Fold this sequence. Notes:
By secondary structure, this protein is of the alpha/beta class.
Amino acid sequence: MPFSFLTHLSCTKCGALEDAGKLLNVCTRAGCGGALFAEYSAAALSKDDTAGRPRTIWRWHELMPARWPEEIVSLGEGGTPLLHAKRLGAKNAMPRLYVKEEAGNPTGSFKARGLGAAVTMAKALGARKLALPTAGNAGGAAAAYAAAAGLECHVFMPADTPKVFRIECEAYGAYVTLVDGLIDDCGRMVAQKKDAEGWFDVSTLKEPYRVEGKKTMGYELAEDFGWTLPDVVVYPTGGGTGLIGMWKAFGEMERLGWIGSARPRMVSVQAEGCAPIPKAFAEGKDVSVRFEHAHTYASGLRVPKAYADYLILKILRASKGEALTVTDDEMRRGVNELASSEGLFAAPEGGAAWEAVKKLVAAGKVDRGERVVVFDTGTGYKYVD
Length: 385
Ligand SMILES: *Cc1c(COP(=O)(O)O)cnc(C)c1O
């Protein structure tokens, strides 16, 4: 049996097929530029075959892109706990409230899953120098995996990103450029320079494999819920990689016969100061409009326009989900509640997800008895200033 069932890439916009053996960013068809998805053969695989393996993103290696074990660059990412939030649940009469606790990942956030997979594949396919824009955590994760892979890494971040993100990138040996602007301004700088500099762009959904790393959260949820899925998944959304990835994973698992056709309602949470997805969702639009003057202290949510917004919106609707906002003050309260009730010092993004749950319950959109998963996507320790 091959180590990976990867066969090819397909465009999520126009359906064009691309060669998975090439180092590619997005769909190469003229004028398309759609995000590329990794596709796998329909070979049989039993979930029992995965049971004894280490709990990292590579536990699911047949449905991951690395062709051989030797290619993998890993720092032990993934395999995070699904915690039953008993005290917070009891206080809110929600007996089946769970937290997917991603703070324990290498570099302190779930970005490690995505960049672990992306850096592995970039190196395997011949990249020597990586570049990316970041709102914070992606830069640290990219820099760490690039260091472990022996690759050069160039990180572009808004000048007002918390200082710790820059310090860690530099410690990992990355070249950091502070940009007077937002993450999409940083992205434009990468795009302008990359050809002349020979950089491979590992921006969110502008290469096919970050989403593969993040989809493993979907596999883990299914396994931890005894090969069923929860009723509601609440996801603090920036570029949307995890939400898109989990939805992809659910489809793959159904095709493998590991789960049925039931799906959670997917909920996208953004900050009131940067809410392109809730706005587009409310207006019934298929794509979002750049959110001007974007501001929030949850740097992971400060993404004024997601590259694959069309996928996020499609998934929210297909799952009968929701998109909503919380304020920065609400996030702070959410962080404090997660910390004081559950012992989890969450990132503001995690606090946002918990606050969103309360709003959905109050609005009658989530029933208190449902199985609800709050994503705590990173550690609070990076946001202390
Ligand atoms: C990047 C980030 C997010 C948003 O993740 P996406 O997959 O880009 O939507 C949420 N929380 C934290 C802590 C992050 O670093």
